[in-house]
């Protein structure tokens, strides 16, 4: 069941949704969500080393990609800085869903690039009598990782419960020998070790027309910051959530769904001597209600729709010498409407959303950030999507949208040294909402196990909020009492254009010696241009793709994959090109019985040629310090019961 972007529960979707679950998720799980999703078409990551790796969609990052937890907002500080990790452990996830383009409209302007929704069963949504679950242990990889997770679900027809726990340790990441921008040669990414642990407890009551449940969770991580050899981040997020569904509420209302969550996030940057340099705190609450009306029969076909209300409230503070933003509050409320019409081979979906956003600077160093002030915005978004089945397995899809995003507190009020990125960042309190108009066209073919699709898209921003170097420098005194020159980066609105092509395919091949063979491929190309200067937008991945061959026979699965990226020469004037690369990966997996339980053993061999490679989507000040992982072997066992 696709949850994200499918509030109507439709079997055939107009919108482009990608999902990752089951054995595919088990084999692709990385240390971070960015690692886990990087093979998906159109999806990349910010890659600030092995610990801070936030997903990007179609070249867009930060607050343009909405991170959700069970379709509710994920409160954290990952969009503020590239070195801030997501409080998500992929080990306990059962499913990840990705929306791109106009499909994300129902989640607001902060989903202008797309949505990544992480799903678990912490609030059970259906009865699961008895006890079932899964346990997994794993070790190896380029960071000598070892860890594991256990998930338990159970209950009766009237009540369901859930428990999960995970723990992960990793050393400094091993890479091919390289020389960093400070002239130091190494085979490890310095200060990149980590330890994370998480746990959750949840339960739901079931009744004839729905359910109601609640969950509590706690996530801790302690990891090093590569750009600062002696600095560590201690981060914790606690979250309580409730969700439910009521079907056949009243005549004309088929279903009402609701959810509410309250999160407390704390993030401390600890110096080498144990002193806390900066403390980031974010307390947030979000609520969402969706009401689906009963299908309305028209002469041409049924019309189904959802009307919804969403509310978010967050208080953010940064205390310490390295605070680059004042204390802030962000309040937002939104109404949205989505209607879906189907007639024969045709499907149409239209949506509209209106928001009210208030971003306020509430206190801090007035000499640095100025007097408290408040900014109000009224973003509005619209979309129209369509699809048609043209026969012989072919279908066409298209969408157009107009989206607006309110500037974030750091885009408005930042003013200080951002040590993680090695830059002095300056916000602009006069920024207007980011505005974009997009068009997306797709051709898809699916028949006899084969599945191919190509998407072309273009987004024109009349006001793209970019953080660019302006050529100036600031002289600051570091912890050693030495003066150093730091580049200045400013947030400003510029006209911009992004366009690209995505190709993804899966093609069964004739069997060989009893092995069922499948060829798979992905190709991504995105181009971003500042229409004011003609320069490329920063941190965009070059043309990249993969080619894989998978062989299955009985309980065995073997997959060989070549992944490559072209050289990225399209960079802003103050950035540097990133070299291309090609890496080889090999996965071997086998299902077997462990008593009465189903078990999966797997081995993953990565970067077999130990190729030195860098990510073009990393921020320029960290890129030379964090090559991609070197040759490694990783193994694990998952048992389901």
UniProtKB/TrEMBL annotation:
Q: Which GO terms describe its cellular component?
A: cell outer membrane
Q: Does the keyword Cell wall biogenesis/degradation apply?
A: no
Q: How does it sit in the membrane?
A: Multi-pass membrane protein
User: Which GO biological-process labels does this protein carry?
Assistant: siderophore transmembrane transport
From which domain of life does this come? Bacteria
The protein's location, in the record's own words, is: Cell outer membrane
Please name the Pfam families in this protein's record. Answer: Plug, TonB_dep_Rec_b-barrel
Q: What InterPro entries does the annotation carry?
A: Beta-barrel_TonB, Beta-barrel_TonB_sf, Plug_dom, Plug_dom_sf, TonB-dep_rcpt-like
Q: Which GO terms describe its molecular function?
A: siderophore uptake transmembrane transporter activity
Provide the alphabetized UniProt keywords.
Cell outer membrane, Membrane, Receptor, TonB box, Transmembrane, Transmembrane beta strand, Transport
- Coiled coil (residue ranges): none
Q: Which family does it belong to?
A: Belongs to the TonB-dependent receptor family.
Protein name (record) = Putative TonB-dependent receptor
């Amino acid at each position: 069941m696709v949850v994200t972007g499918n509030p109507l529960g439709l079997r055939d979707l107009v919108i482009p949704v990608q999902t990752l679950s089951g054995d595919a998720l088990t084999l692709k799980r990385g240390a971070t969500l960015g690692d886990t999703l990087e093979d998906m078409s159109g999806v990349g990551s910010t890659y600030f080393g092995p610990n801070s790796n936030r997903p990007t969609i179609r070249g867009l990052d930060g607050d343009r990609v909405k991170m959700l937890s069970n379709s509710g907002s994920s409160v954290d500080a990952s969009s503020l800085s590239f070195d801030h990790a997501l409080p998500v452990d992929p080990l306990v996830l059962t499913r990840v869903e990705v929306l791109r383009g106009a499909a994300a409209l129902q989640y607001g302007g902060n989903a202008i690039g797309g949505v990544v929704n992480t799903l678990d069963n912490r609030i059970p949504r259906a009865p699961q009598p008895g006890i079932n679950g899964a346990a997994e242990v794993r070790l190896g990889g380029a960071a000598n990782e070892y860890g594991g997770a256990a998930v338990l679900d159970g209950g009766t027809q009237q009540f369901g419960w859930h428990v999960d726990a995970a723990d992960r340790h990793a050393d400094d990441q091993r890479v091919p020998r390289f020389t960093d921008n400070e002239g130091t040669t190494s085979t490890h990414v310095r200060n990149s070790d980590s330890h994370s642990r998480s746990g959750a407890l949840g339960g739901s009551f079931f009744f004839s027309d729905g359910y109601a449940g609640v969950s509590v969770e706690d996530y801790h991580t302690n990891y090093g910051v590569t750009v600062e050899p002696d600095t560590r981040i201690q981060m914790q997020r606690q979250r309580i959530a409730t969700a439910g569904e009521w079907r056949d509420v009243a005549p004309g209302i088929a279903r009402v769904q609701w959810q509410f969550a309250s999160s407390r996030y704390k993030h401390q940057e600890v110096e080498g001597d144990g002193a806390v340099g900066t403390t980031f705190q974010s307390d947030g609450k979000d609520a969402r209600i969706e009401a689906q009306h009963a299908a309305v029969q028209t002469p041409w076909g049924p019309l189904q729709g959802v009307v919804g209300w969403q509310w978010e409230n967050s208080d953010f503070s940064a205390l310490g010498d390295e605070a680059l933003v004042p204390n802030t509050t962000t309040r937002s409320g939104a109404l949205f409407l989505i209607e879906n019409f189907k007639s024969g081979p045709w499907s149409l979906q239209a949506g509209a959303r209106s928001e009210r956003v208030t971003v306020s600077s509430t206190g801090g160093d007035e000499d640095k950030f100025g007097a408290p002030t408040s900014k109000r915005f009224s973003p509005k978004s619209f979309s129209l999507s369509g699809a048609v089945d043209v026969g012989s397995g072919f279908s066409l899809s298209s969408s157009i949208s107009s989206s607006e995003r309110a500037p974030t507190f750091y885009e408005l009020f930042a003013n200080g040294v951002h040590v993680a990125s090695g830059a002095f960042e300056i916000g602009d309190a006069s920024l207007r909402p980011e505005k974009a108009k997009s068009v997306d066209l797709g051709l898809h073919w699916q028949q006899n196990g084969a599945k191919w699709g190509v998407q072309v898209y273009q987004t024109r921003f009349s006001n793209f909020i970019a953080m660019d170097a302006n050529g100036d420098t600031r002289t600051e005194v570091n912890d050693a009492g030495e003066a150093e020159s730091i580049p200045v980066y400013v947030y400003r609105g510029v006209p911009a254009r992004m366009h690209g092509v995505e190709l993804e395919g899966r093609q069964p091949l004739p069997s060989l010696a009893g092995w069922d063979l499948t060829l798979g491929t992905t190709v991504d190309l995105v181009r971003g241009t500042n229409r004011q200067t003609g320069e490329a937008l920063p941190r965009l991945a070059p043309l990249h793709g993969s080619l894989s061959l998978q062989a299955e026979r009985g309980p065995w699965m073997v997959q060989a994959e070549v992944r490559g990226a072209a050289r990225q020469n399209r960079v802003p004037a103050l950035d540097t090109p990133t070299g291309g690369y090609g890496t080889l990966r090999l996965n071997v997996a086998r299902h077997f019985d462990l008593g009465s339980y189903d078990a999966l053993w797997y081995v993953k061999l990565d970067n077999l040629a130990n190729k030195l490679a860098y990510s073009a989507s990393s921020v320029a000040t960290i890129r030379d310090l964090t090559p991609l992982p070197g040759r490694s072997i990783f193994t694990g066992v998952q048992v389901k019961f």
